[in-house]
Amino acid sequence: MKKWMVLVLMLVSASVFAQTEKGQSSVGANVGYTFDSEQVSLGIDYRYSITDEVRIAPSITHFVKNNHLSTWNFDVNAHYLVQLSDVFGFYPLAGLSLSLWNAKDITLFGKKDANFNRFGMNVGLGAEVYATQNITVGLEVKYHIIKDFDQALIAVRAAYVF
Fold this sequence. Notes:
- The longest helix is centred in the N-terminal third of the chain and has 14 residues, at 2-15.
- The chain has a single domain, classed as Porin (Beta Barrel).
- 27% of the residues are buried.
- It has an eight-stranded antiparallel β-barrel. The protein has a two-stranded antiparallel ribbon with strand order 7-8.
- By secondary structure, it is mainly beta.
- β9 (115-130) and β10 (135-146) form a beta hairpin.
- It has one helix and eleven strands.
């Protein structure tokens, strides 16, 4: 029985490899949570590897309405990939952000039912597992540095690599 388990593990390991090669792309979806505004987030992103270690990652995220606030967030982040094994890697990230905040039925900063647009920055850390040749799953933690709306965000992501 042990021999069969070892053989299966070897075959699975041989078919899985890191997706961090120059020119590779991925399209993913994520679900997360924002800590200060206590909102669920739903997002999509595209990642393109400029080099084997550096990739660019634009994304669109919607923070679902909670406490009369909803948000659309547009990010462009850069990742520096650190591959720890053939199936696991992590990356620090930094980037720019544009947030479109919508406040309904509340007064925020002296305005009732107002919209606020803010530019900001992102810093964070992510990790991903290369489940198959074309599928990755990961976890990302980042901090949005935005005037009046700073907050931390955690998200789980699944993506198709091509």
